[in-house]
């Protein structure tokens, strides 16, 4: 098989092959796989192998519109529920500025993911990027960070589902039981083999979570009194234009805002399953603009009317009845957060184990056994996380600080600098724009490092304080949906 041409790689990371005479002497199973792969006109993807041949699994089947919906749902879910409380900690003015800065930074790094995929069609995840840039050690470090990020977010998704079940049922049973129920809801959907198989779930999920958040956003000013406010007598929202938090409190709040955009590390696998990876940049611009506008509108309205009485997660701010209705409406959306991250964490291992083999893109027994083992193992790990750290805000902040910064900011800045190297070697190509880009990406690296270290410190202290205040413990039966 000849090497793909530069033009074929640039046009969508595939090449087209024709049959070879020597394949007729191959082993029967391998023969069938090869004939599928090299059938006349069959495209061979640099990650998934044969696409569109007879009996092959066509992973690359996502259009840019469905990709945009999935990107929106990756962002709009767990993170938006903590934005109003982050605004209260920081103050509205600093909170808005920091939110917009994070939106710009993650928008740029998301765009760079699409560019890097076109330049290097063989990469499937940030782990592949790490190995490409820094060798085997870099690949190992990025692999561990990427996988841990996905299973931690999957765990926080399970935790949000337990909060929802507790709210709807008025804590009908032990929260530890609800974690098992949540995992049972997630598993069958996460096991669907292709992103295109669950794209309809992403649409239902986006509509559900958006409807629930808008319900609470409208109910708070209409109701006139947040649920956590004193039930009788005068009350004050303690609205703060500028807050006065401690360093740890501020960093934990910023980590929560960063988590609102922390879907970035899994953008590359999603781009890899698009029919035309060039359209990924369109999806990034559309989703980033839409989500940032919603974050600002919802965060400002909820915080303005609730102030210090905003709940975290925010769906509990408007009272018992609204909370139960909102969580019921939001349940599909909250489920999808765990479904998509369990699916992607399982596929991350699945692709690395079977990459280059016949079983990766054919529904063989080995294919299904490995796929089920990968998904179930990742969900089990997420279950352990959700049970061991039953503090929603603290867990979200920890994920945003530890993995959100490194995988959403550090990695992409390094990717931009890596692709710059060939041009930088030519003195005539060193323009002012290039130097500006270098300076900008170095600044991103410095900001990301500060946020990671400071955010981890604040999040760990926040988890400790929440544990002490609530008496929470691993595998707890306590109600985690709040007191309202």
Automatic annotation (TrEMBL):
Topology in membrane: Multi-pass membrane protein
Domain Amino acid transporter transmembrane per the UniProt entry, residue ranges: 62-460
GO molecular function terms listed in the Swiss-Prot or TrEMBL record: L-amino acid transmembrane transporter activity
Residues that span the membrane, as ranges: 64-87, 93-116, 137-158, 170-191, 203-224, 253-272, 284-305, 325-345, 366-385, 391-412, 433-457
Domain of life from the UniProt record: Eukaryota
Amino acid composition bias (Low complexity), ranges on this chain: 1-18
GO cellular component, one term: membrane
Localization (cell): Membrane
Span list, region Disordered: 1-31
Keyword Membrane tagged: yes
UniProt keywords, alphabetically: Membrane, Transmembrane, Transmembrane helix
Keyword Cytoplasm set for record: no
The family this protein is said to belong to: Belongs to the amino acid/polyamine transporter 2 family.
Protein name per its UniProtKB record: Amino acid transporter transmembrane domain-containing protein
Originating organism: Rhodotorula paludigena
Source species taxonomy: Eukaryota, Fungi, Dikarya, Basidiomycota, Pucciniomycotina
